# Entry
Amino acid sequence: SPRVKWLKSPIRSWINGKKVGSHLGGFTAFEFNVTQLIKSGENTISIGVMNESYADTLASGSKYAAHPLGGIPRKIYLFAVPKVHLSDFEINTYFDEEYKNADLSVAIKIKKNRDVELTDAKLIFTLRSPSGESVLLDKNEIDASTFTGEKKEILFKIQNPDKWHAEHPNLYKLEVELKNGSEFETIKQKFGFRQIDIVGNQVYLNGSPIKLRGVNRHEVHPLRGRSLTDKLWKKDAEIFKEGNCNYIRTSHYPPAEEFISYCDSIGLFVEIEGPFCWATPTQLKIKDKEKMLAILGHTYKTATDEMIGFYRNHPSIIIWSLANESAWTDQWVEIENHANKLDPTRPKSFHDFVRWTWNGNPSTTAIANQHYPGPDGPNWARKFPRPILFGEFTHLQTYNRKEIATDPGVRDSWGRGFENMWDGMYYSAGCLGGAIWAGIDDVFHIPNAKAVGYGDWGPIDGWRREKPEYWHMKKSYSPVRIYNQIINIPSEGEPVLLQIENRFDITNLNECKIAWSIGDEKGVLQPDIAPHSYGNDKIYLKNNYAAGKLLSLKVYDPYNRLIDEYSIPIEKKISPEQPFEFVAFENLTLNKSEKQIIISNDNLEWVFDAQSGEIIKVEVDGKKVISRGGALMMLPLTTAGGQMKNGFEVEILNDPCTQWRADSIDAKEEKGNIIIFVRGAYTEAEGHTVYTFKPNGEVLVDYKFKSKIKINPRQIGLIFSVDKEYETLNWQRKTQWTVYPENHIGRARGSAKLSDKDKYLFKYGVKPDWEWRHDNNFLGSNDFRSSKDFIYWASLTNNAGNGLVVLSDADDSFRAFNDGDTISFLVAGFVTGGGDRFFRGHIKNEMRELNEGDEFKGSFIMKIIQ
# Structure
């Protein structure tokens, strides 16, 4: 076209030294007819790829990957067709008003060589059901002698077909054979019977409203970049399906077709996005307006044509996204109209911020979009006139890199905000659902460089290892909720009653099974509860069970996938168990000198500095347990932005308060206790700490301070240090869920070593063969150094089981870390999730901003383990 004469195409090809053609774009499929250039015998195919192009600019491809994208990320193949062949093949399905019977529409276009006549051309159709049985067609053989030029539509009436849905991915196979004389061609295509409708502000599939539980997915691997393998495509589909996702947004370009095929077969809704990200007219930096508009129009239209034309027969695709976070202009109105003509069966979206219109006028696509709507988004969406999709929401904590490097536990805290947000979205009729940002860490290990990318923001990392957020996603997205907190033992002959919610779109729970067990008893329930409704089911127990026993429940979907687990206590909540023997404080004495304050008995000694009030040491039988302690730590919430170009070397945020000055130190005996009262001030706060030594071996630690600065804190508490041999952390805590995987850093009860660097030594560019929890930096492993929030107790012990334990009423957080020659631990009386700028609004109710003069306090118990 003369209007686009300025275009430079980044992909060019030659056969036997002769130019075949060129193509503008990097993520959509294209083809050339090379018949006239092929010779008998060996042929040479040459391909040239130029990264710098208008297509890459409008896709922000290299910008987004934080390194120049190069090479060939999709497969290339050469194929031959007969002289008479199918050049276009389009399948659509349309249901009657009852969504029972359907029309199968097959639109076909035939091409032929000029020297060939369609004198005996015919099309033969064979349809097979999901079980492989032949489906009778009323006209399986069609005269094709007039099928030249435009596409021809053929309709088949199908009686009561099995429908395709993410919950029941029933795939039919259509085989089309084109015969012309002695030549023939056969095309096979899997497809599904399904119909998408929009009624008001809801999207319906086959007459039932749907709710999208999804993630954004990049084609990404640390070593392969954006060029994956069949094993990875299959793994991605399976791991997100196992995580209770039913929807994938292919941010921000079309993926490999193999991945979409897996979504078809495994049952995942897909929104395929065009290869445009942050695209604006000014992005091209072209002063000539005519030239700029011509390039924009050509690039937008070509990519949209290729995207829809290549993927349109896949039933999993339910939405076409035109672009990501780009400027909505008149050209996009034209592209939307054009896309609707190409495929009127699927709604279109444009991922912007329709609520805020930051990028000009809001989009007018059938499905509206709002990225990062915040906790009030679901309520706002209820009355929106169109279905609104939260195309990116509850961004995983990423940009608070200092916090994550210091304390991976902020990843566990993400679950609290996510659960609340998803519940709001589920009950908001106008909210179609959404996609977590993001599905997989977007991090690349560039040769001869360090790691680059936008962020480690996935519930799975680039190696496909599950991170803490994955379990929170699986639990929150669970389509089956059981609400019992405690099981009350019923009277004889009466059942245990379970309170159940079915959040499936079309699946009755009688298609699923709930396997239960308690003691030696077990059974299976299949409650008759309709989709999107509540109900009950009964368990009849033969035995009487003592309080504290656990009723285990495992929920399986119709395909026997484990979708949820519960562990519910009988009669009362499980009491924390402390498997320790403690050093008693019998016959304690108090000795004071100018330099030290000593509390001791025959085998125990606590030593305080008489000038500063800080703990100098704690010894048992002459062996040091605590090295120092009592300093105040006030860590602020932090965030940052942009790409990670500095690899894995991230500065930590772990500094105690500064410039301590003790104003007074009192030590006294009172009512059988010994009390140390330390008052003073830091640069950041002023106040006091009280240590109360009780005869039963408890040291009650109380502190109360007044802030001298304005701060939005993440953790506030006291830090202590122990000798390096006390490298085993054990804990029991109050948790968000009743069941966790054994390798989850937020599990209710667990044990973790400081680190095993020889075994879990990270090597750049080498896939780790261990779980994510074992990854370590100099502070320790992810499991060890992550905060254990809401503890009942947490201990640090050596190989002999000696050490110390901190006791709490699930009010405190415990965080241990390597601190040079010692291991330090923070007991935080105030804790909240991390400070990532995209997520922190979801835990706003946990935050407490301190102004100058505001008070804060905490209290916990320490014991020495013998």
